[in-house]
Amino acid sequence: MAALFDGPWWERVVVAWNSSPVKARLAGFGAARFVVADGQGDVVVEWGIDGMATRCEAPPSGCPVFTATAVHWVQFVSGDFTAAAGVLSGKIHFQGSIRTLLPYTLAFNELAKVARPFV
Q1: In this predicted model, what pLDDT tens digit does every residue of 56-67 receive, in sequence order?
Q2: Could you tell me which of 11, 87, 2, 72 has the C-alpha nearest to residue 40?
Q3: CB 20 within 8 A of CB 113
C-alpha cells in the first residue's frame, strides 16, 4: 500500500483527479510541490490548461511549495480544515505567489476530497 504523499500515493490521486468531474477547477494552475516535513513525501504535480494532472520529476522555477507534517496533511485531506484555513493557521506552509494561489484555493479543497479515499 502506498504511504501518504509518496509517489505511488500521488499516482492514485492523479488518476482519480483526472477522472473527476471537478478537474477543470485546477485548469491552468501549473506545477506545485507538496512536501511532508516529517516524512518521505516530496512530489511535484502539474495541472495543464484542461485541469489534467501529471507528476513531474523536478519543480519548475518559481513553483509554489506546500509543506506540512504528515498529521496535518492527513487532517487536510480528511476534511478537518480547508486549504485556506491550513495556510492561515500555519498547519500548511506555503511558499510562492499568493496571487497565483488565491483563485485556486477552493479547488485545492476539491483535490482533498478526491484524495480522501486514499488516506
Answers
A1: 989 999 999 999
A2: 2
A3: no
